[in-house]
């Protein structure tokens, strides 16, 4: 039911509650079918007639009414996006994994429930939340040039503020440079998930301390970049370096790539921090977290996911119930992605947040295995064992009480026999007296 809500909400968000003034007329689905049923006869034409084609790969229609409604809602999201993007030369289609298995194999579609975008000779998988808002933004980013050029100090200031993103920036002689061309080709491999920038302006390059044909790699939330060694770089060298360094020390869970981030676990676990950036405590906790990440970015197995609950309001009740935490306060924990078991850092003082050294000590215990989600399972088992021991003790007490009752009954029977014997003796004495 939660997944149905996730797909339903974006559609409902386009329905105005009151008549909107001109300039704020949110689009409503007009009922026209624009999403194709992709099959062996029309898929080549669709790819040829559009600069990009967006396809939703789904399983066969289920007998379950709930699953049928979910599929209908996903189709409605695609229809609304197709309507909004109608003038952008983007085609939309749905591929049935059962009926159109041959087409899916030819196109390289593998994961049911995923959205794939075909642009030129590339296939890009959309790993975000399937909502109209998020998908439109994703497609617009794909329509942009893969490299953005910085020409002045104001653009450089905007670049500096993009601390949540992985960014690369290179300094090249001109757009005709073969080294810039290799940089641009590499950018296409990661568009739109990783941002690429270039400058041909000497003053901008000087501000960035870049030399000719040099490329800097910026990890999220880090103050200083890493210069990619061995300039100038080929496309293959850039792709290899980015692939090896793509997992940041601290990264934010974002709707546009949330599933890719969540699936990139380390040995089945994530270190997760919940903090509302707009909340004073959340902001303070996030700043402490950034400090810890910067001081420990050299650790290859350290990767922390920061989740701002405000970005996922529908998931707040689910997270609080599943992880048994209060998300109105900053939280730090380790989560097993297989069964959602979790262990959370104890914050004894509700007024004071943990210090950077305290966070580092806790993270060190997680990385060493001293703190892990299996310990939580052991505690549950211990509780079960305690319950069993209590049951055994209760049974023993009951058995002892029954034995005591039996002994009391035997004593009563003996007393009755003694009384009967005494009565018989008295009767005999009376008979003797009569005689």
TrEMBL record:
<comment type="function">
    <text>Calsequestrin is a high-capacity, moderate affinity, calcium-binding protein and thus acts as an internal calcium store in muscle. Calcium ions are bound by clusters of acidic residues at the protein surface, especially at the interface between subunits. Can bind around 60 Ca(2+) ions. Regulates the release of lumenal Ca(2+) via the calcium release channel RYR2; this plays an important role in triggering muscle contraction. Plays a role in excitation-contraction coupling in the heart and in regulating the rate of heart beats.</text>
</comment>
<keyword id="KW-0703">Sarcoplasmic reticulum</keyword>
<protein>
    <recommendedName>
        <fullName>Calsequestrin</fullName>
    </recommendedName>
</protein>
<keyword id="KW-0732">Signal</keyword>
<dbReference type="InterPro" id="IPR036249">
    <property type="entry name" value="Thioredoxin-like_sf"/>
</dbReference>
<dbReference type="GO" id="GO:0033018">
    <property type="term" value="C:sarcoplasmic reticulum lumen"/>
</dbReference>
<dbReference type="InterPro" id="IPR041860">
    <property type="entry name" value="Calsequestrin_C"/>
</dbReference>
<feature type="region of interest" description="Disordered">
    <location>
        <begin position="369"/>
        <end position="435"/>
    </location>
</feature>
<dbReference type="Pfam" id="PF01216">
    <property type="entry name" value="Calsequestrin"/>
</dbReference>
<dbReference type="GO" id="GO:0030018">
    <property type="term" value="C:Z disc"/>
</dbReference>
<keyword id="KW-0514">Muscle protein</keyword>
<dbReference type="InterPro" id="IPR041859">
    <property type="entry name" value="Calsequestrin_N"/>
</dbReference>
<feature type="signal peptide">
    <location>
        <begin position="1"/>
        <end position="20"/>
    </location>
</feature>
<feature type="compositionally biased region" description="Acidic residues">
    <location>
        <begin position="374"/>
        <end position="435"/>
    </location>
</feature>
<comment type="similarity">
    <text>Belongs to the calsequestrin family.</text>
</comment>
<keyword id="KW-0106">Calcium</keyword>
<dbReference type="GO" id="GO:0010881">
    <property type="term" value="P:regulation of cardiac muscle contraction by regulation of the release of sequestered calcium ion"/>
</dbReference>
<dbReference type="GO" id="GO:0005509">
    <property type="term" value="F:calcium ion binding"/>
</dbReference>
<dbReference type="InterPro" id="IPR041858">
    <property type="entry name" value="Calsequestrin_middle_dom"/>
</dbReference>
<dbReference type="InterPro" id="IPR001393">
    <property type="entry name" value="Calsequestrin"/>
</dbReference>
<keyword id="KW-0325">Glycoprotein</keyword>
<dbReference type="InterPro" id="IPR018233">
    <property type="entry name" value="Calsequestrin_CS"/>
</dbReference>
